[in-house]
Every structure is written in C-alpha cells, then in structure tokens.
Amino acid sequence: MTKQKEWDPVNYSVYIMSGQEKIKCYIQGLIVVSLVLWIFYQSIISILICSPLTYFYVKYQCKKKCRERKWELTLQFREGVQALVAALSTGYSVENAFVQAIKDLRLLYVDETMIIQEFEYIVYQIQMNIPAQNALEDFARRSTVDDIKNLSEVFAIAKRTGGDLVKILRSTSRMIGDKVEVTREIITMMSSKKFEANIMAVIPIGIILYMKISSPGFLDPLYHNIKGILVMTVSLVIYIVGFTLMNRILVIEV
C-alpha cells in the first residue's frame, strides 16, 4: 500500500533557514559585526556586548531569501498558468487541467519545485472535495504574491459567473508575462545601482582603514575615551541608517 503524502503548506512570507544555513549565516554575521565594531571602537568588550546584533543580520538575510523565493515562485507560476491554459484549451475539466499542467511542468522543473508542489497540493484539496477556487485562494493567501492573488480572484469570479475561463486565464497569463518582463528590465537597470550602493557602503570603512594604515596614530583620539566613543557611535548610527535606507530604496517588491 502506497503511503499517502503528508502536506505541510508553505507560508511564503516566512523563510525558515535550515540548520546549516543558519550556522553559516550566524558565522557571516558575527564576522561582519565584529569587523565593523573593531574598526569603530577597537574594543573586544564592544564586540562581546554587541554580538547579539548578529541576529539582525540573520533576520535581514531571511527577508532577502524570502523576496528571492517569491520572485522565483512568480516566474514558475507564469509557466504554471500557461500549462493550465493549454490543458483547459484541449478540453480538460478544471480539476483534470491541474493534473495535466503538473505533467507539463515536470518537463521543465524537478518534482521539488515550488509550483509543482503547490499544484499537487491543489489537486489534493480538490480530491478532498474542496473547490478549486478555494484551493487557489489558499495558495494566494500563503504566497502574498499579487499575480497569484489576482488570478485567484479572477478564477473565482469566472467559476461563479460561468464566464469563459480559458479566455480569462489566457488574458491573465499574458498580463502576468508582461509584468514579469517589466520587472526583469527594472532588476537589470537596478543591478548597476545596487553595485554602486555596495561600493558606497564599503567606502566609509575603507576610509577609516586607509587612515589607520597611512597615518598610524592619527585616529587614536577617537578610541578608548568618552568623547571619541560618542563621536564613533554617532558615526556608526548614521552609517547604519544610511545603509538601511539605501537597501530599502533598492528593494523591488514582487
């Protein structure tokens, strides 16, 4: 007897790192935090006190992974909708169209791919007598991707009003494709700006290191005294705020 697959629906708004990823990320964060704190304070005590800041680095990386996963899901979803439209156009019912779409998607992706997993879960829900529009709505709610939300709403309206589902889905698929291409162009144009932003983020650290190497002792008044610590703390806060704002401006939401 074949063991039935156990489903654990993914919440795409939360990225849970594996143990190996988490250890790697914490090590990277500790190195970054320690390097920055040493440059600004030259104190082991400051590194020990502020080492918990590594948590925020890990949190930032989780958000970054989350955005990347949503973008990948959007690209896969476009292929999934096209496969679904193709299946419906050949006369399959909605329920069987998802099954056929999975077969087509397996020619493009491996079984562990997000869109195949999600379509399989939709098929499972349909077999459990859950309407297809409800299964899609659940997928849209968990993904928080606008394209999936829009398709879910259009799909529900078409099923409720008896509209031409194939025509509506084909039009929606075309719109998703156009949006993906525009987003790709924006990402391409922004890549150079991100590179410039990364250079700008390194420059303040580079200036301090250059002055330390080229003029030993010149920055000594900024270390190991109250006034120097206050000056460096203000500088560090400005640096962190600037880095955070720069990253928020360059983030492209899917």
**What is the total domain count?**
1
Query: Major beta sheet, specifics?
Result: none
Report, as a whole number of angstroms, the end-to-end distance: 42 Å
Q: What is the N-to-C succession of helices and strands?
A: HHHHHHHHH
**Mean of residue pLDDT values:** 85
Flag low-confidence runs.
none
Number of helices: 9
How many β-strand runs?
Answer: 0
Tell me, briefly, the overall form: elongated
SSE class = mainly alpha
Helicity, as a percent range = over 70%
Q: For the CA atoms, what is the radius of gyration? A: 25 Å
Fraction in beta strands: under 5%
Q: What key attributes describe this structure?
A:
254 residues; mainly alpha; 9 helices; elongated
Please give the structural blueprint.
Layout: H1 19-41, H2 44-50, H3 54-89, H4 94-105, H5 114-127, H6 132-143, H7 146-161, H8 165-214, H9 226-250
Helix pairs in contact: 1-2, 1-3, 3-4, 3-5, 3-8, 4-5, 5-6, 6-7, 7-8, 8-9
Q: What's the short story on this structure?
A:
The chain has 254 residues and is mainly α. The chain has one domain. Helix content is 77%, strand content 0%.
